[in-house]
Amino acid sequence: MQKISALLITYNEEKNIKRFLEDSAYADEIIIVDSNSTDKTVELAKDHPKVKIFKRDFVNFTDQKNFAISQASHEWISFFDADEHIPDDLKCEIINTINNPKYQAYYVSRKFFFKNKRIYYSGMQNDKAIRVFRKSKCIYKSNRLVHELIECDGEVGKLTHKLDHYTYSSAEEYRRKLTSYSKLRAKELYERNLKPNFFHFRIKPFYRFINHYIIRLGILDGKEGYMISKLHAESVHKRYVFLNEIYQENSSQLIN
């Protein structure tokens, strides 16, 4: 039987950590890299017999996840998020797959829940991410600070069963998360020397709303679809506001 390491990065995940630990019973070890949580995340996890906890300052998602990978003892890794629930049929499929693998990594499709309501459209209908992979063949791309992507040296397959993605219990919680993503994305764009203009401030946010609400059928998800589309449009606008602020701050530093 192949052994597997279950990895997780955390910051104030006390409401999700017990479920994650229960879901990760299939793993031979559980690696948690915590970004100095101020709630009971570490306290709730530290006595679990399979858990190894590393406290580490957060730089960006890619950096934190690659550090977690480096701490894994086993070749096969599962890397889920704390707000994702792993159903039993998916757990069985993971174990069966790594004991007879055809690929070096595997996508897992996600059922998206917003405010405890299943969202079928709004751009979420094809949502998937690599969640199971070989340590020796995969790493997160260093040029992505947010919405991190796995770079795999080999072919990538897809598991049949889906996970449940319980995102946010309120619009304000979702807005805060998207705002943190916008700040990291702005840093990425600054490194690429992109300078924002009218197109970025006005056209791109408008298109993002249309894309989620009309093109990707968010209108069929009711008021939640409208809310999700609006919040994503806001996050695009904030991305370029933050990018412009970076340029202004660096410009003032040069003057001084």
Could you give a quick summary of the protein structure above?
This protein is α/β, with parallel strands linked by helices and 256 residues long. It has helices at 17-23, 41-45, 61-71, 88-98, 171-191, 198-215, 222-255, and strands spanning 4-10, 29-34, 51-55, 76-79, 84-85, 105-114, 117-119, 128-134, 138-140, 150-152, 156-158, 163-166.
What does this structure look like?
The protein contains 7 helices and 12 strands. 29% of the residues are buried. It starts with a strand and ends with a helix. The protein folds into 2 domains: 163 residues, Spore Coat Polysaccharide Biosynthesis Protein SpsA, Chain A (Alpha-Beta Complex); 85 residues, no CATH class. Helix 5 packs across helix 7. The strands form 2 sheets. Strands 1, 2, 3, 4, 5, 6, 7, 8, 11 and 12 form a 10-stranded mixed β-sheet that branches. Strands 9-10 form a two-stranded antiparallel sheet. The protein has 256 residues and is of the alpha/beta class. A hairpin with a 2-residue loop joins strand 6 and strand 7. It is globular, with a radius of gyration of 19 Å.
Relevant terms:
single chain, 256 residues, alpha/beta, Spore Coat Polysaccharide Biosynthesis Protein SpsA, Chain A, 2 domains, 10-stranded mixed β-sheet, two-stranded antiparallel ribbon, 7 helices, 42% helix, globular, Nucleotide-diphossugar_trans, Glyco_trans_2-like, Glycosyltransferase family 2 protein
